[in-house]
Protein backbone atom coordinates (compact mmCIF):
# COMPACT_ATOMS: atom_id res chain seq x y z
CA UNK A 1 0.00 0.00 0.00
CA UNK A 2 1.35 3.43 -0.92
CA UNK A 3 2.25 5.96 1.74
CA UNK A 4 -0.34 8.40 3.01
CA UNK A 5 -0.08 11.80 1.37
CA UNK A 6 -0.53 15.21 3.03
CA UNK A 7 -0.90 18.65 1.48
CA UNK A 8 -0.47 21.97 3.24
CA UNK A 9 -2.30 24.95 1.76
CA UNK A 10 -0.45 27.82 3.41
CA UNK A 11 -2.72 30.85 3.41
CA UNK A 12 -0.16 33.53 4.16
CA UNK A 13 -0.89 36.93 2.64
CA UNK A 14 2.78 37.07 1.59
CA UNK A 15 4.20 35.69 -1.62
CA UNK A 16 7.40 33.66 -1.60
CA UNK A 17 10.20 34.11 -0.70
CA UNK A 18 8.99 36.33 2.17
CA UNK A 19 9.15 34.64 5.56
CA UNK A 20 5.83 33.23 6.65
CA UNK A 21 4.77 31.97 10.07
CA UNK A 22 1.81 30.10 8.61
CA UNK A 23 4.17 28.32 6.22
CA UNK A 24 6.45 27.46 9.14
CA UNK A 25 3.70 25.86 11.20
CA UNK A 26 2.55 23.98 8.10
CA UNK A 27 6.05 22.61 7.55
CA UNK A 28 6.27 21.64 11.21
CA UNK A 29 3.09 19.62 10.78
CA UNK A 30 4.59 17.88 7.75
CA UNK A 31 7.70 17.05 9.77
CA UNK A 32 5.56 15.58 12.54
CA UNK A 33 3.52 13.60 10.00
CA UNK A 34 6.69 12.14 8.52
CA UNK A 35 7.19 10.35 11.84
CA UNK A 36 4.01 8.43 10.96
CA UNK A 37 5.08 7.51 7.41
CA UNK A 38 3.14 10.34 5.79
CA UNK A 39 4.69 12.10 2.80
CA UNK A 40 3.80 15.72 2.20
CA UNK A 41 3.97 18.85 0.12
CA UNK A 42 3.30 22.53 0.82
CA UNK A 43 1.80 25.15 -1.47
CA UNK A 44 1.74 28.84 -0.63
CA UNK A 45 -1.59 29.83 -2.16
CA UNK A 46 -0.60 33.49 -2.63
CA UNK A 47 2.04 32.36 -5.13
CA UNK A 48 -0.74 31.22 -7.47
CA UNK A 49 -3.42 33.07 -9.40
CA UNK A 50 -6.44 31.62 -7.61
CA UNK A 51 -9.61 33.40 -8.64
CA UNK A 52 -12.52 34.28 -6.41
CA UNK A 53 -15.51 32.01 -6.92
CA UNK A 54 -17.32 28.88 -5.80
CA UNK A 55 -16.75 26.59 -8.80
CA UNK A 56 -14.04 24.03 -9.50
CA UNK A 57 -12.76 26.19 -12.37
CA UNK A 58 -13.25 29.95 -12.77
CA UNK A 59 -11.95 30.03 -16.34
CA UNK A 60 -8.82 31.04 -18.23
CA UNK A 61 -5.88 31.78 -15.98
CA UNK A 62 -7.42 30.32 -12.82
CA UNK A 63 -4.80 28.20 -11.05
CA UNK A 64 -7.19 26.63 -8.55
CA UNK A 65 -7.85 23.53 -10.72
CA UNK A 66 -4.19 22.49 -10.42
CA UNK A 67 -4.27 23.01 -6.65
CA UNK A 68 -7.56 21.13 -6.49
CA UNK A 69 -5.91 18.10 -8.08
CA UNK A 70 -3.34 18.17 -5.27
CA UNK A 71 -6.15 18.33 -2.70
CA UNK A 72 -7.92 15.36 -4.29
CA UNK A 73 -4.68 13.36 -4.37
CA UNK A 74 -4.01 13.93 -0.65
CA UNK A 75 -5.27 11.86 2.26
CA UNK A 76 -4.70 14.72 4.70
CA UNK A 77 -5.29 18.42 4.02
CA UNK A 78 -3.62 20.95 6.29
CA UNK A 79 -4.86 24.52 6.12
CA UNK A 80 -2.47 26.94 7.81
CA UNK A 81 -3.53 30.54 8.22
CA UNK A 82 -2.56 33.70 10.05
CA UNK A 83 -5.09 35.61 12.13
CA UNK A 84 -6.06 39.02 10.76
CA UNK A 85 -8.58 41.16 12.63
CA UNK A 86 -9.62 38.09 14.60
CA UNK A 87 -10.49 36.19 11.42
CA UNK A 88 -8.89 33.63 9.09
CA UNK A 89 -6.83 35.41 6.44
CA UNK A 90 -8.63 36.39 3.24
CA UNK A 91 -6.58 33.82 1.31
CA UNK A 92 -7.90 31.12 3.65
CA UNK A 93 -11.47 32.26 3.15
CA UNK A 94 -10.98 32.17 -0.63
CA UNK A 95 -9.69 28.59 -0.38
CA UNK A 96 -12.74 27.59 1.65
CA UNK A 97 -15.04 29.23 -0.90
CA UNK A 98 -13.39 27.31 -3.72
CA UNK A 99 -13.74 24.06 -1.77
CA UNK A 100 -17.48 24.75 -1.52
CA UNK A 101 -17.74 23.46 -5.11
CA UNK A 102 -16.88 19.97 -3.85
CA UNK A 103 -20.41 19.61 -2.47
CA UNK A 104 -21.51 18.93 -6.05
CA UNK A 105 -18.63 16.60 -7.00
CA UNK A 106 -19.51 12.96 -6.25
CA UNK A 107 -17.90 9.58 -6.72
CA UNK A 108 -19.59 6.55 -8.29
CA UNK A 109 -21.26 5.69 -4.98
CA UNK A 110 -22.76 9.13 -4.47
CA UNK A 111 -20.24 10.38 -1.90
CA UNK A 112 -18.59 13.79 -2.18
CA UNK A 113 -15.04 13.33 -3.48
CA UNK A 114 -13.74 14.80 -0.22
CA UNK A 115 -15.22 11.99 1.89
CA UNK A 116 -12.48 9.88 3.42
CA UNK A 117 -10.02 12.78 3.62
CA UNK A 118 -8.79 14.19 6.93
CA UNK A 119 -8.33 17.87 7.78
CA UNK A 120 -5.90 19.60 10.14
CA UNK A 121 -5.59 23.32 10.89
CA UNK A 122 -2.58 25.43 11.89
CA UNK A 123 -3.08 29.00 13.12
CA UNK A 124 -0.59 31.75 13.95
CA UNK A 125 -1.00 35.37 14.99
CA UNK A 126 -0.21 38.22 17.34
CA UNK A 127 -3.68 38.58 18.76
CA UNK A 128 -6.38 36.49 20.36
CA UNK A 129 -8.57 34.41 18.10
CA UNK A 130 -6.88 31.05 17.46
CA UNK A 131 -9.86 29.05 18.73
CA UNK A 132 -12.31 31.19 16.77
CA UNK A 133 -10.30 30.84 13.56
CA UNK A 134 -9.94 27.09 14.07
CA UNK A 135 -13.69 26.74 14.59
CA UNK A 136 -14.50 28.67 11.41
CA UNK A 137 -12.09 26.70 9.26
CA UNK A 138 -13.06 23.31 10.69
CA UNK A 139 -16.76 24.00 10.18
CA UNK A 140 -16.23 24.88 6.53
CA UNK A 141 -13.97 21.88 5.89
CA UNK A 142 -16.40 19.52 7.60
CA UNK A 143 -19.29 20.94 5.58
CA UNK A 144 -17.66 19.85 2.32
CA UNK A 145 -16.82 16.38 3.61
CA UNK A 146 -13.48 16.40 5.43
CA UNK A 147 -13.25 14.35 8.60
CA UNK A 148 -11.80 16.11 11.65
CA UNK A 149 -9.60 14.05 14.00
CA UNK A 150 -9.40 14.57 17.74
CA UNK A 151 -7.17 17.52 18.74
CA UNK A 152 -6.53 18.32 15.07
CA UNK A 153 -5.46 21.94 15.45
CA UNK A 154 -2.19 23.51 16.48
CA UNK A 155 -1.58 27.20 17.04
CA UNK A 156 0.66 29.91 18.38
CA UNK A 157 -0.50 33.37 19.42
CA UNK A 158 2.02 36.03 20.38
CA UNK A 159 1.64 38.96 22.71
CA UNK A 160 -1.31 41.22 21.95
CA UNK A 161 -0.25 44.09 19.69
CA UNK A 162 3.24 42.58 19.71
CA UNK A 163 5.76 42.57 16.91
CA UNK A 164 7.25 39.07 17.25
CA UNK A 165 5.94 36.52 14.76
CA UNK A 166 5.97 32.76 15.19
CA UNK A 167 8.89 32.39 12.78
CA UNK A 168 10.92 34.72 15.05
CA UNK A 169 9.82 33.28 18.40
CA UNK A 170 12.05 30.21 18.51
CA UNK A 171 11.08 26.60 19.20
CA UNK A 172 8.20 25.91 21.56
CA UNK A 173 8.51 22.12 22.03
CA UNK A 174 6.43 21.88 25.21
CA UNK A 175 3.49 23.91 23.92
CA UNK A 176 2.86 24.38 20.19
CA UNK A 177 5.38 21.66 19.38
CA UNK A 178 3.63 19.07 21.52
CA UNK A 179 0.24 20.06 20.11
CA UNK A 180 1.59 19.78 16.57
CA UNK A 181 2.83 16.24 17.23
CA UNK A 182 -0.54 15.23 18.67
CA UNK A 183 -2.44 16.68 15.71
CA UNK A 184 -0.15 14.85 13.29
CA UNK A 185 -0.42 11.52 15.10
CA UNK A 186 -4.21 11.67 15.26
CA UNK A 187 -4.51 12.76 11.63
CA UNK A 188 -2.30 9.93 10.39
CA UNK A 189 -4.20 7.40 12.49
CA UNK A 190 -7.60 8.51 11.21
CA UNK A 191 -6.46 8.83 7.58
CA UNK A 192 -5.14 5.26 7.68
CA UNK A 193 -8.44 3.98 9.08
CA UNK A 194 -10.45 5.81 6.40
CA UNK A 195 -8.19 4.56 3.63
CA UNK A 196 -8.86 1.00 4.76
CA UNK A 197 -12.61 1.48 5.26
CA UNK A 198 -14.31 4.32 3.40
CA UNK A 199 -17.71 5.77 4.33
CA UNK A 200 -20.73 3.85 3.04
CA UNK A 201 -22.52 4.12 -0.30
CA UNK A 202 -24.70 7.26 -0.40
CA UNK A 203 -26.31 6.76 -3.81
From TrEMBL:
<dbReference type="InterPro" id="IPR029039">
    <property type="entry name" value="Flavoprotein-like_sf"/>
</dbReference>
<protein>
    <submittedName>
        <fullName>NADPH-dependent oxidoreductase</fullName>
    </submittedName>
</protein>
<dbReference type="InterPro" id="IPR005025">
    <property type="entry name" value="FMN_Rdtase-like_dom"/>
</dbReference>
<dbReference type="Pfam" id="PF03358">
    <property type="entry name" value="FMN_red"/>
</dbReference>
<feature type="domain" description="NADPH-dependent FMN reductase-like">
    <location>
        <begin position="7"/>
        <end position="152"/>
    </location>
</feature>
